[in-house]
Every structure is written in C-alpha cells, then in structure tokens.
Amino acid sequence: MKKALRIFILTLAMISLLALCSCSAMDKEMNGGYMDGNDVLGDAPGYNKPTYEYGEPNFDQEAADGELIEPDAPSESPSIVENPFIKTEDIDTSTFSADVDTASYTFLRKMINSGYSLTELQNIAKANVIRTEEIVNYFNYSYNDAQEGEMFGTKASIVRSPWNEETYLLTLGLKAKELEERSANNLVFLIDVSGSMYSDDKLPLLKQAFSFLVDQLDENDTVSIVTYAGSDRVALEATPGNKKEIILNAINHLTAGGSTNGEAGIRRAYQIAEANFKPDGNNRIIIASDGDLNVGISSPKELEKLVEEKRKSGVFLSVLGFGSGNFRDDNMSAIAQTGNGVYHYIDSEKEAERIFASSLLSTIYTVAKDVKFQLAFNKDFISEYRLIGYENRLLANEDFEDDTKDAGEVGAGHTLTVCYELKLCDAALNTTDEESGTDNDAIDEWIKLSIRYKEPDADVSELREYSIGEADLTSEADSDVKFISTLIEFSMLIRKSTYRDPNVTLASLAERLETLELDAEKLEALTLINKIIENEK
Question: If you average pLDDT over residues 460-480, what whole number do you get?
C-alpha cells in the first residue's frame, strides 16, 4: 500500500513538472523565444543572466559567408548606387544633405579586426553598409575656424586626382562653430534589451558607453531611461545628472531577453522627452540597439514616417549601433537621418569613450540643423562633375530652398568633408585676366557653393554663399587632402568602384600613408589596411 502511494505521488510530481515545462515553453514561444528583458526579474539585483538557446553569432561563419545583414532584410532597404559623372551642360547644379555620421568606419574597423579579408569586405559592401563620406568624416582635419557671426569655416582645394590623371579632386572642408558654453541636457536613453542584445559586443558594451556619458553630466541635466523588448518600460524617471549612482545602477541592472518592439519604445521615449522638455536646453533621445526590430514597425520607411512625425516636437534623436550578425544598419541609419541626429557605431570601449568623453560637444550638441549644400558649376570651366559619396543624402535641386525638407545636423566644432571628382575645361587651366577681358572675380568663380542651415530652434533657414575657382587650384595637395584621397581610394577598392584605379592595391595605399605625418587616429587607418593584408594570407 505504501509502495503504491509513493508511486502515485511520484506520478503526480512528474505530471506537474511536465505541465510546468510545457507552460514555460509556451511562454518562451509567445515571447519570441526569449525571456523579456523588460521583465521585473530581469532588472532585479543579483538576478543571473539567462543562457539563450541561440547563443552568440558564429563570427567565423559570418566571415566565410560575408553576410552581416539578415537574409530577410526588407526589400525597401536603401541601396547605394555610386554617383556617376554628370555633364555640366546638362545639369549644372548638385544638391545634397549634410552627413556627419561615422558608423561605416567603425563598423568596417570591427570587421577588419575580426579577421575579414578584402573579398569578404567587398561582399559586405554589397549590403550598403560602407559609405565613403562616413569613412572620411570620422577623422578631424585642419580646417578653418568659423569667423564671428558665421556658422562654418570653409576651406577648398583642387588638385589632380591620384587615381585618374585626367580628372581633378575638389575637397571642401567645413568646420562648425564651437559652443561658448553648453546648455542643460534633457536626455532620454532608449535602450534595446531584447534577446538579440545578449552578446558581449551589445548590451555589456552599451552599458559602458552610457557610463562615459553619465560621467559628463551635472545637476542641471536630467536623464530618463526607457527600455524596450517585447514591450516598453520606463526603467528610470527623469533624474538629475549629478545622481550618477542612481543612473548607473539603473543601467547596470538591465538584462537582455525577448522580442523587439522598437516602435513602442520610440513612442514612449518621445513622450518622456516632451514631458521633461527644457525650452533653452538640449532635448535629445539617444537610442542604442542593433536595429533588429521584429515587433510593430520594423522597416526603414515605416521608421522614417514614425520619427518624421515625432521630430516636430523639437526633440533630437541620435543613434548608437552595436553588434553584428543580425545588425540592421538600414534601420539605424533611417532613424538617425530622419530624427535630427547623428549615427555612430560602437565597436569598442575606446570608441565609446571617444564619442562621449573626448567629443561630447560635437556628439550631442547640435549647432546647425537641416544643413544643405548646393554647388552650381560653371560650364565654361567644369565640363563634368561627380559627387563622391553622399549617395543616400541626395536632394532635388528645388529642395534646397524648401525649409520643410529635412536634412542633416551638425554638432559643435564638427568637421565635415565634401569631395567631387571634376573634369576641367581648357579654359579653367589657361584663362588669364588679359585673355578674358573680364574682372578677376568673374574668372575665379568656377563653382558657387551655397549652404543653407537653421539654428537648432529655428524654422527658417539662413543662406551663405562662397566662390571656388582658380585661386583654389594647386599643384601640391596638403597632408589632409592626401589622407582624404587615400581614404576615398580605400573605399572605392572595397566597394569595387567603377572609377577606381585598377592598379591600386592595399599595399600601395599603405605605402602612401606611410609618407604622411599622421596622428594616432589617422595612423589607425594605416594599421587597418595592413591588417587586411595580413588577413589575406
């Protein structure tokens, strides 16, 4: 009898255990296969991070495949079609938006440091994650400071293209004005804590990045934290910036798990930013994610519509990208481009420190928004022109004067580089005052550069105009231009550009950089090129 009773009790226990496992499995399936990072347990001190069945991405396999974007990426992902040469007699005006994002360079750096070969990098470039202007704009250059009353300092040079002896390279360098004093911050950290953020190069690195930013804040600033996974949650109500321990404690207790409802998180973040709006301050959402949205709005075009609707509030939105494997660059780029913000990719603790400690002012303080460029080429001097990079920032010429048309933002003291490949007419090389019979100003204007921008709190743009021409033509490029042209050729090699010199190799680019005096950041570019050469062996 006792034996039968023990068997009965054991049977009941097994049934209960099976039922519990079944419910747990059902919950897991309904929640995208992961525990929700917004769950209360996920934020409890001392809670052990769960081990997910999917594990970390197999980096070696990714390297072999050369695929870093999920195969089911939406068909409307923006494709980069290299800008062609345009005949000036057909279209004499080129218009585009500013872009000071740096994500492409740091993403490329991570892939190189992870052992990718040139062929594998060229495969990555097919996914449109390598943008030439973002590689060039990662670095600072010796550009002219903005004069009093001006938004930008400008510098121009025209030299022979190192990759084509029949063309010339126009390099425009702009430097935004510095801030005399920083305003108070109303910051909302919008943090992705979904299951895809579990790996070391995502949530753990994200926490370190925000710790650098928190360290720069004071009692005049406020920080709120919103997290999103299967749903959104306010992890920290608006807290003074000098309450660092409270802020960091909220960040450090975050764990990853669940599906990714970015739409809900974005809406909640704007709601909180607006509720704590500082009329004379810097109101900004900083979203940190791998961009892998799978609940609610999940495509670049849908995200653009959502953020476009919200940006009218006066709240800026910047983006920090993390990780690889299922990293969705297209989503991250679309959010930043539409949300009046800048897009950085964080590949290391060093990069996080660079952005939020060394370059804080240019990272989160906007001095000019909706910055647009328009260059008018004189057909008597320029026969053809080709904008290098900025393919996803092109604007219709009529958009230049349309103040309702969104464009890029530029931070305090930020440098910005624009390059064109030019084909000059004979007149551009041979004209003299005596031959033309016209005044020097008329001769000198081969190109008119027009810049439109708005003050951060303005709705009406200001216009500045500059002349570029014979006075900017030089036979010897300076160190900055030599470095920039090498980066351009490096990008053209990776992107298999139609316009690249077929004889240029990684080794020849490295040799060119070795002849220049480079600071530590620029020297890293040489190190990366040499590393690709090593990866090839």
Answer: 96
Asked if 194 and 471 touch (Cβ cutoff 8 Å), the reply is no
Secondary structure (DSSP) of 374-429: EEEE-TTTEEEEEEES-GGGB--GGGGG-TTS--EEEETT-EEEEEEEEEE-HHHH
The answer to whether the Cα torsion of 133, 139, 143, 145 is positive or negative is positive
Question: pTM higher than 0.85 for the full model?
Answer: no
- pLDDT, average across residues 150-163: 97
- b/e burial code for range 265-290 (CB count within 10 A of at least 16 → b): bbbbbbebbeebebeebbbbbbbbbb
* Cα→Cα distances 483→198, 393, 514, Å: 38, 23, 10
Residue 85 to residues 17, 327, 382, 383, 498: CA-CA distances in angstroms? 70, 33, 12, 10, 11
DSSP 325: S
| Angle at the Cα of 371 from the Cα atoms of 149 and 293, rounded to 5 degrees | 140
Q: Are strands 316-321 and 282-289 parallel, antiparallel or unpaired?
A: parallel
Question: Do residues 314 and 273 touch, judged by C-beta distance below 8 A?
Answer: no
- How far is Cα 352 from Cα 345, in angstroms, rounded to an integer? 9
Q: What is the sign of the dihedral through the CA atoms of 273, 278, 279 and 285?
A: negative
Q: Which residues of 180-212 are buried (b: 16+ CB within 10 A; e: fewer)?
A: eebebbbbbbbbbbbbbbbbebbbbbbbbbbbb
Average pLDDT over residues 446-460: 95
Calpha distance 367→178 (Å, rounded): 8
360-384 tens-digit pLDDT? 878 899 999 999 999 999 999 999 9
In angstroms, the Cα distances linking 170 to 160, 212, 244, 269 are: 9, 38, 47, 42
CA atoms within 13 A on the CB side of 292: 23
pLDDT of residue 3: 45
C-alpha to C-alpha distances, 159 to 129, 486, 510, nearest whole angstrom? 29, 13, 21
Cβ neighbours of residue 253 under 8 Å, at least 6 residues apart? 43, 44, 45
